[in-house]
Structure formats: C-alpha cells, structure tokens
C-alpha cells in the first residue's frame, strides 16, 4: 500500500463527502416541505407527502438509484450519474428526515403556537419561526444520525458510475492484489469523516441547548 | 354610550355534545378591568379563549371595538366565516397572556418581545428592539433582555409574556389565569404589573382565582358556573352582598381560606 494509493482513496473521499453533504442539504429542504405538508391539515398536501415518505422508506436505496438512473433517460431527461446519485440520495434521506422531524413537530407545545396565533403570525410565519426551529432542536441528534447513515449509504452510488471511496477501493484492490490494506484504509477514512460529523453535531447540539434548554 | 370594548352576544361553545358555554351575553366596557371568576370547569377560560379566537364559538357573535371576530352572524342566525386576514386584523386589537407563559424557548426575552413587531408589523429590527426594550423596562426586566426563558423565574417569564403582548400595542389585554402556574411568592410581581396596567386605563379581561385581585382591581366581576354566566356586576355588589346562592357558596370557599378582607 503506497502513499499514491492512499491519495487516490482520499480523492474519492471528496466525491463521497460532496455527494453526501449536498444530498443531506437538499434532503433537509425537501423534509421541511414534507413536514409543512403534513402539518397543513389539508389532505391534498398530506396524502402525497405520506405516499412519498412510505415509498422512499420502503424501497431499498440501491433499487431507487437504479430506477432513477434508468428511468430519467426514458422520460427524456439525460443527466450525468452524479446528478442521478444526488437525486436518489436526497429523496431517500428526505423521507427519513421528515419522519424524524415529525416526532419533533408533534412535541412542540400547543401553547407556543397559540402565542404566535394571537400575535398575528400567519401559518407560514409560525412554521418558519416557531415550529420548525423548535422541532429541529428536539430532533437534532436524530438528524445528525441520519447524516451519518447517508454518508455510509453513499457507497451505493457506484452503481450509477460514480467513483467514491468504496468503488475506488474495489478497483484498487483488484488491480493491486492488496485488498486488506486498501479496504482497511477505506474503513479508516469513513470512520474519520463520520466521527468528525458526530463531533460537529455534538458541538452544535450543545450550542443549541445553550440557547433553549 | 360608546361602543363597548368587547360585546359577546348569545355565545355558545360546544365540544362535541358537551356545552361548555351556554348563551353568554356580556359587554366589557372600555378602559375597565373585567374579571371572570368561577369554579374549575365553569367555562371561564374557554370564554377568554373565544375572545382570542383560540376557540371558535359554535354560535353567537363576538365583536371587538365593534368589529366582528371570526364570524359574522346576521339577526336570522345565518353565519359566515370572515377571511383569515381580517381575523388576524381584529385579533391584533387584543393581546393575550397565558397561564403557562408560552414564551418561545429558542428566543431571548428581547427576541420574544420584538419578534411579532419585526415579523407581523414589519418594524425594522433596530426600532423593534428599542420598542421591545421599552416594554421590558416597563415590566422591570430590561436587565434580563438577553436571557432565555429557561434562565428566568416563572414570575419573570410571565412578565416577559406581558411585555410581549403589550409590544403590539393592543387595545385589550386578555389574561388566562396569569398567576396560577406560579409559586405564591411570585404571584405578587405579576399582579403588580397588572395593577400598573389597569391604572393606565388598559381594558383588561382577567380569568383568575385571585379573588383578592378581582375584588381590589376588578371593576366588573362576572361569575360563571357550568357554562352559564350567573352574575355580572361591580365588585361591591358581588362581594359585599352576594345574593346568588351558588356565588355565595363559591366565595365561602375563599373566605374559609382566610381571604377575610373581602367580607
């Protein structure tokens, strides 16, 4: 195992990190929209949101990725693999994040919403300024957990032709016949990245606590 | 006579089959302190919540400064829900203070008081915070502006909640058992803020178990029992010679507990 091989793995890690972080962010925005839909009280919004969540939680991510990658060109949308990968991961994590947030939204005390109502907030203002910030604080550890899950699940995007850590490790292992040091290095890189996310999460959680507990 | 601050006409509120309020007729005059008293489950909090439109009346009509709240009902009983923006507009004439304070935990005291000014009234940040600070000063908490609710005592939280309601310059303040969640030692500081407010001529509707406060500050006392308004009048009339058997019985329980200054 040479430094050159390790550098190649690190380069692939950038693609893992980039795809994962972008997907988590897009997924969070979609999860917020799903939450708003679920809280709207209108079945035209609630039913599609529920369907979305059950579909993306109920179908393996690998199948979702393959489906998106093969389906898009058929309906006339030609996208590079990386876009298909980000779409797949985003939609999947959106469903899980929405489900995590649902518990948080349900735990926002009714009285805090009433206080916003009597102050003349619109429904959207109450969502943005009261319900969402409190729900995010309540579910923050679960959201960090989901970020780590997605970073690990991103190893699946190799099926749509993306070279990320796992795929690079497989290629290097088969061309150098040194599978053990290479896979061990890949594991180490995942471990370091996820520990960093967990640590950042812990830190953010504490500063959020300081502002609310 | 001028338009009453609040006029309640034939108000009925049912939760399913249960009638919580039955045919309430009440006028609350401007600039007066009106106290709603009665045993638990009498409907007094529900009545107040109807005035804030946190509960929607089943039938009947409420007007705030002559403007219909939530629904318009014509004399034939035909009822029409008013548009959301109009409901919000009428609602901004009232400010509400809750039993559980309901301060937003992720905002400082200053944030709680200035938020609606910025968001609803579109006041620029600096001016909103200046006005919020003035309200905090009024309730004696300007040195707690940067504190989060969790860092404040119950009495301080309730004073911030009062400042938050006052910041929107309401014509009428609604108080829902504002001291019931407080230790007896802390009720005084909240009642004092309310006394100051009353002396400034604020129209106030107060649901309270503090009979002493009702007797000394209240100018109109309404007694509810089992969803009905049994009596409404000036405190002297109610406390000095309660003629209604049920009211007498209710007040006796307070006198038993040593509130003898009322007698």
UniProtKB/TrEMBL annotation, chain A:
Transmembrane segments: 12-39, 138-160, 180-200
Gene Ontology biological process terms, A to Z: amino acid transport
An MF annotation (GO) of this entry: transmembrane transporter activity
InterPro entries xrefs: AA_ABC_transptr_permease_3TM, ArtM/GltK/GlnP/TcyL/YhdX-like, MetI-like, MetI-like_sf
UniProt keyword list: Amino-acid transport, Cell membrane, Membrane, Transmembrane, Transmembrane helix, Transport
CDD domains named in the record: TM_PBP2
GO CC, alphabetical: ATP-binding cassette (ABC) transporter complex
Chief location category: membrane
Record carries keyword Cell membrane: yes
Stretches assigned to the ABC transmembrane type-1 domain: 13-201
Compartments, record wording: Cell inner membrane; Cell membrane
Pfam families, sorted: BPD_transp_1
Family, as annotated: Belongs to the binding-protein-dependent transport system permease family. HisMQ subfamily.
Protein name from the UniProt record: Amino acid ABC transporter permease
Organism field: Aliirhizobium smilacinae
Lineage, opening ranks: Bacteria, Pseudomonadati, Pseudomonadota, Alphaproteobacteria, Hyphomicrobiales
UniProtKB/TrEMBL annotation, chain B:
SMART domains named in the record: AAA
Source superkingdom: Bacteria
GO cellular component term of the entry, any: plasma membrane
Compartment(s) of residence: Cell membrane
Family: Belongs to the ABC transporter superfamily.
Name of the protein: Amino acid ABC transporter ATP-binding protein
All copies of domain ABC transporter, residue ranges: 6-251
InterPro entries linked: AAA+_ATPase, ABC_ATPase_HisP-typ, ABC_transporter-like_ATP-bd, ABC_transporter-like_CS, MetN_ABC_transporter-like, P-loop_NTPase
Predominant subcellular localization, coarse grouping: membrane
Entry-linked PROSITE patterns: ABC_TRANSPORTER_1, ABC_TRANSPORTER_2
Record-level Gene Ontology MF annotations: ABC-type amino acid transporter activity; ATP binding; ATP hydrolysis activity
